[in-house]
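Exam revision sheet. Question 4 asks you to relate a sequence to its structure. Input first:
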Amino acid sequence: MTFEDSLRPLRGDLNRALLVILAHFRAQIGTIHLLEADGLLHLRAHTPGIPEPVLEATRVIPIGKGIAGLAVERKEPINLCNLQQDATGDVRPGARATQAMGSICVPMFDGDRAVGALGIATMHERTFQDDEIAALVAAGRVLVG
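Answer key, structure tokens:
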């Protein structure tokens, strides 16, 4: 059974799916945002331990704002080796409050349309490799496709 196949039964339970994804990538923090009818990304799953001010700031995100909003707008992964030291301008101050370092956020696709964002992070520096990025994008397709 492939990684993506292991996620198929969890399509209706995004919190459980997120835990499987985190275990697979040995990551500690994760979020799933889905695009709703209002045109905004809504937080639909997250790991415990994310500070409440961060959760509050990320419950609803406009396209183009923050890491999740940028991943959906650009339709491409945002891969940060150390978001605590990132100087690209992509990282909002609230994201640093998680104390996470290595992070990636990928758009979740239904066909060619970005309909959400799947983000995971580790507590140490890490750059996600191409095969990991492909697996994470495939996981997002399984969960929303």
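Marking note for examiners. Residues 3-144 form a domain with the Beta-Lactamase fold (CATH 3.30.450.40).
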